[in-house]
Amino acid sequence: MVELSPAEERVRQAYARGAEADFRQDSDDAADGASWGPERTVRAGFLRRLLLTAEVEDGVIPALRVAGARISGKLDLAGADVPCPVRFHACHFDQVLDVEAARTRQLDLNASVLPGLRGARVRMAGALHLTACRFSGDVRLAGARIEGPLLAEGARLETTDGWALRLDTAHIENDLWAPGLRATGPVTVEGAAIDGALNLRDAELGNPGDICLGGTNLTVGLDLLGSGLRAVGQIRLRGARVGGTLDITDAKLTCPGSKALRADNLVVGADLRAVRLSAEGCVDLRGGKVTGQINLARAELSNDDGVLALRVSSCTAAELSLREAKPVRGPVSVQNARFDLLTATPEVWPDVVQLNGFRYSALAPHLPARERLPLLKRAEDGFVPESYTQLAAAYAGVGDDISAREVGLARQRHQRGTQPWHARIWGYVQDVTVGYGYRPLRAAAWLTLLLAAGTLVFGFHHPPALDPGKAPVFNPFVYTLDLLLPIVDFGQAKAVNPHGGYQWLSYALVAAGWILATTVVAGITRTINRR
After folding, report:
1. Are 191 and 166 in contact (CB under 8 A)?
2. For residues 278 and 295, what is the distance between their CA atoms, to the nearest angstrom?
3. Cα 51 from chain centre
4. Which of 69, 175, 71 shows the shortest CA–CA distance to 115?
5. Is 94:72 a contact under the CB 8 Å cutoff?
6. What pTM was computed for the model?
7. Burial (Cβ within 10 Å: 0-12, 13-18, ≥19) of residue 27
8. What tens digit of pLDDT does each residue of 165-219 get?
9. pLDDT at 41
10. Cα–Cα distance for residue pair 390/387, rounded to 1 Å
11. What is the mean pLDDT of each run of 10 residues along the chain (531 residues)?
12. Residue 494: C-alpha distances to residues 26, 153, 464, 466, 475 (Å)
């Protein structure tokens, strides 16, 4: 039988009673545990034998509870069936703790210092406590099943090669609660299922130039909380599903020249809150489905070298809000996106915007059309007819028909610039005469002006009658009106025959009448089709 040290004998006796063996001293720091002496050193081999082979008296519920000890050697519980709760509080481990594929009730490592944790495929009937732990190597929990919460508030995870925390395909049947987590190296929860909430408030994640939080196909049953998060590297949530709210209010994401947040095909059951978000790198939400609001109010978004700063193409949500956001520095894509409400002022949008297929039902705040139209002219694909249609419909939807007509006129003018020269000439004629049908009173003004001019000229110079005996009494007003109005016949134009310049004037009046008539008809037709 292996002789036990006094410290180990103390642990053995406490284990049999379910009590704690506490070796802590004032001002202890587990990071200094390598220097602790034999009076508080416990061998890992002894602990393994104690957990797996020790006999206990009937009616006694054992538990391994150790505080302030140095665990020397490797505690290897891989594949073991650990029958009791295990707690190491403020302990120092010389080597990696291995619980890979083990079965245990509960594991508590609060405030302990370890060079790593191997727990792939572990089955835990209770909680996993990593609060205030410090790891200098990988924490591997891929495929783990934890029936209670995983608590890692204030934990410090550092690795130079590998994963700071790997929870890929794990299933946590409660919360993953890690506010204030500090991780150097990637944290991955790809394909994991968290039935409760995921809390990363005020966490600091760092893996520059690579993924610092990987959550592809992650499922979170309740909320994903990341307010105050600081991330250097990419946050990847491709295909993730969040049952409640995704909150990254006041977060700061840094991944310049790439994607700071890659969340294409993300599904959020409530709101996506990113108020005061600061992102250096693209915020990519393409293909996402958000039941509530995407709130980027007072956000600051930027990217380098012409790379997209915001991408919400093919995204759907009740609202996209950029209220009081700073001007986006970098291109924006809203192609094929659909929002019930778009809240943004014109100053928010950058010089390059991708607008094809963008749909929204209403705009806020309500501004004159002249303030919103310049954005449509900056579309990366040039003339995008649907963007004008959407803006006009938004104004019409709130009863602002004047602004809706102004947008329609701007659309025709923009389209004119894309047409061949002969079509542009006809466009200029329609614009000057009746404003493409959106300014119908212009036709009346032109008719009045031409009618007055013709009446004045022909009033001073009556054209000679074709048949003086049968011609009606000449009336310069009616004669001019007869020339200007196609189809209508007052009998004056057929009864006289002007000569020289007066004849050319009559031809000009007839041509002007036909032009005005056809442009009015075209405008009326366009208006009917629009409605």
Report:
1. no
2. 13
3. 49
4. 71
5. yes
6. 0.83
7. exposed
8. 999 999 999 999 999 999 999 999 999 999 999 999 999 999 999 999 999 999 9
9. 97
10. 5
11. 87 91 91 94 95 74 93 96 94 97 96 97 97 96 97 94 94 98 97 98 96 97 98 98 98 96 97 98 97 97 91 97 96 96 95 92 93 88 85 89 84 83 78 70 76 84 79 82 78 80 85 74 58 53
12. 118, 97, 11, 8, 13
53-90 core/surface letters (b: 16 or more CB in 10 A; e: else) = eeeeeeeeebbbbbbbbbbbbebbbeebebebbbbbbb
Tell the burial category of 454 from Cβ atoms under 10 Å away from its Cβ (0-12, 13-18, 19+).
buried
User: For residues 95 and 117, is the Cβ–Cβ distance under 8 A?
Assistant: no
Q: What is the pLDDT of residues 499-526, one digit of tens each?
A: 888 888 888 888 887 777 766 666 566 5
Decide: residue 473, CB within 10 A, 0-12 exposed, 13-18 middle, 19+ buried.
Answer: exposed
C-alpha distances (whole Å) from 119 to each of 313, 327, 393, 474 are 40, 46, 57, 107
Beta-carbon contacts of 172 under 8 Å, excluding residues fewer than 6 positions away, are 144, 146, 149, 150, 192, 193, 194, 195, 196
C-alpha distance from residue 207 to each of 66, 159, 310 (Å)? 34, 10, 22
Those residues with Cβ within 8 angstroms of residue 257's Cβ, 6 or more apart along the chain or in another chain: 281, 303, 304, 305, 307
Pairwise CA distance, residues 294 & 310, whole Å: 12
513 C-beta neighbours (distance < 10 Å), count: 22
Three-state secondary structure string covering 440-493: CHHHHHHHHHHHHHHHHHHHHCCCCECCCCCCCCCCHHHHHHHHHCCCCCCCCC
